[in-house]
């Protein structure tokens, strides 16, 4: 490769490649949009951004962008599920959104899997 692409944010694989506007990891199958310069989940100034770069704030409504597996549930959280009244926190393992989802209860999400509604 002649380009210097970032490693996969899910599994840290160095074998990422570009597919159109997305970056793709061949090892775990994770797809993401490259963050603009200075815009990642948590930036130096403490701002938390969603998967497309919009700034998130407490009380926002977000939409889940991909289907998420939930341990102990036969079905996960489906893509397109709206989550209202989020709270931004410093969670474990990059989970920076505290919320309550109907049918699942209280849980934490990563800002990289939601989009501001």
From TrEMBL:
Q: What keywords are assigned to this protein? A: Hydrolase
The molecular function terms in GO held by this entry are:
hydrolase activity
Where is the Protein YjdM C-terminal domain positioned along the sequence?
A: 48-117
**Record bears the keyword Transcription:** no
Q: Does the keyword Hydrolase apply?
A: yes
Q: Where is the Protein YjdM N-terminal domain?
A: 5-33
The family note in this entry says: Belongs to the YjdM family.
Q: What is this protein called?
A: Phosphonoacetate hydrolase
Organism encoding this protein:
Streptomyces albireticuli
Upper lineage: Bacteria, Bacillati, Actinomycetota, Actinomycetes, Kitasatosporales
């Amino acid at each position: 490769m002649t380009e210097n692409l970032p490693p996969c944010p899910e599994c840290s694989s160095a074998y990422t490649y570009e597919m159109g506007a997305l970056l793709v990891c061949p090892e775990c199958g994770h797809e993401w949009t490259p963050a603009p310069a200075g815009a990642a989940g948590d930036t130096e100034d403490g701002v938390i951004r969603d998967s497309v770069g919009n700034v998130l704030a407490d009380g926002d409504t977000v939409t889940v962008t991909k289907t998420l597996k939930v341990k102990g549930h036969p079905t996960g959280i489906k893509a397109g599920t709206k989550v209202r009244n989020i709270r931004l926190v410093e969670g474990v393992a990059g989970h920076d959104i505290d919320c309550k989802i109907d049918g699942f209860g209280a849980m934490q999400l990563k800002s990289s899997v939601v989009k501001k509604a």
